[in-house]
Amino acid sequence: MNFPTISPSLMIFMCVMDDKADIGVVNLVTLILYLGAMLGIGFYFSRREKSTDQFFRGGQTLPWWAVGMSIYATMLSSITYMALPAKAYTSDWAYLFANLAIMAIAPIVISLYLPFYRRLNVTSAYEYLEKRFNLATRLFGSSSFILFQLGRMAIVLYLPAIALAAVSSMNVYTCILLMAILCILYTVIGGIEAVIWTDVVQTFVLLGGAVLSIVLILVKLDMGLVEFIQAGRANGKFLGNTEWFSPDLAVASVGVIFFGSLFNNLISYTSSQDVVQRYMATSDQKKAVRSIWTNALLALPSTVLFLALGTAFFLFYQSQPDRLATSISNDQILPFFVVRELPVGVAGLVIAGIMAASQSTLSSSLNSVSAVWLTDFHKRLWPGGSDQRHLRLAQAIILLAGSLATAIACIMASMSIASMMDAYISVIGMTGGALAGLFALGIFTKSAHGPGAFVGATTSIAVLFWVKSTNSVNFWLFGAMGTSTCFIVGYFASRLIPAKVKSLTGLTL
């Protein structure tokens, strides 16, 4: 198979790491144990996957705390695990306010959105869009979600592949294939139960790796927590370099980050199947509420942890600049440190954490993409067939979607992207704003109808493409602009365009 040429920056980085190409027996054993455990969980739950309901919703019997940790791991991803410390390393802790927004959005989701999904008892979130509007709106929502998830899966495969390529003799493409194949395998055989329980294990692994890294840096610097905070403040590494508010919407001020993140989280927690699917995995609504709060309460301290890790990297290399290669990019700082500084065994654990962050997102995306395609397209457009046939089709969809995302990740490995975190957030706003706007339009208005909603969604996408081309608004605000444009335009278009009146009983507030 002919893969694209490796980018010059990545080639330089891999050449720098040639003296560390041998991962070592202890680190290799650590990785093998981790991967073996993930496969073991998949095989364990494969015995229970006898129906599509079990495969996609776990029979609605999963414990709320496990579901909450799964939501957290799904939303975390390798993007956060690697790119968030890189942001703190190069600038400060302004991105802390992005995850503060999760705490603010949780009560809205619990009180307004969750009751709808539980009452409708849906497998796919986009079933609501047809009930409220029409089939075209449902298929638009499903298609948007699938396309976004394919891009997201590619990114979360690509980032940790850099780390693995840096500590082994494999190239970046081999690393992508290794992670993808193992994750696809346990997702195919174990369904949502395997996804959720591997997420629980992966949460402990990735957080443990970050904690160990910080502790070892403080030991190397002979620095306590108080000294660490003082050194960070002296170098402006907390909030010293960030504007709190700015009239210029192109500037990533704290106000822009927080406000934009409110809408980005609204997109994820109200209109993204991989999260909404978790709301249906518990036995009742009260337990679903607990799972949402579990995720929210995990998000804030872990964000502090990852930002502290980036600050620790800065202080370490400030004190020992000769140990930092000038050829690496910001997003490579974590794997570079792991390769050069961590002792054997610990390095293997941190690399396992990077893999865990990637696989937790990938497995959730694969299962949810399969649920959406099977529910919103196949069963809706071509009804009939046994549940067993649908189960086999769901597994085939996971294989196909996983293969496609893997191919995209390999293509991305040949590209140069300045900041994966920034690129990812801009993609969320570009593709997800219209979806969140559709759900808000359906739930909070009674006059909106299918044609009007469709006009709102398409206008939202067109406006965002124009805004992005002008570079007049910071990418953090893409989600807010997309959601509000869809809602406002969809509402007024519905008032102007005549449409057949349909029953809205139980579908709006």
Summarize the SSE layout with pairings:
Blueprint: H1 8-16, H2 25-46, H3 52-57, H4 64-90, H5 96-120, H6 127-132, H7 135-167, H8 172-220, H9 225-234, H10 254-271, H11 273-279, H12 285-319, H13 333-341, H14 346-381, H15 387-412, H16 420-444, H17 450-470, H18 478-496
Helix pairs in contact: 2-8, 2-14, 4-7, 4-8, 4-11, 4-12, 4-14, 5-10, 5-12, 7-8, 7-13, 7-14, 7-15, 7-16, 8-12, 8-14, 8-15, 10-11, 10-16, 10-18, 14-15, 16-17, 16-18, 17-18
Characterise this structure:
The chain is an all-alpha fold. The chain has one domain (27-416): Sodium/glucose cotransporter. The protein is built from 18 helices and no strands. Helix 4 (64-90) runs parallel beside helix 12. The longest helix has 49 residues, at 172-220. It starts with 7 loop residues before the first helix and ends in a 13-residue tail after the last helix.
Provide a brief overview of the structure.
The chain has 509 residues and is an all-alpha fold.
CATH architecture type = Up-down Bundle
**Secondary-structure element order, as H and E?**
HHHHHHHHHHHHHHHHHH
Number of domains: 1
Looking at this structure, what is the CATH superfamily?
Answer: Sodium/glucose cotransporter
Q: Tell me the distance between the termini.
A: 54 Å
Estimated share of beta-strand residues:
under 5%
> Main sheet?
none
Total beta strands: 0
Mean pLDDT: 82
Instruction: Specify the overall morphology.
Output: globular
Percent range for helical residues? over 70%
Spans of at least 5 consecutive residues whose pLDDT stays below 50 are 1-21
Radius of gyration: 23 Å
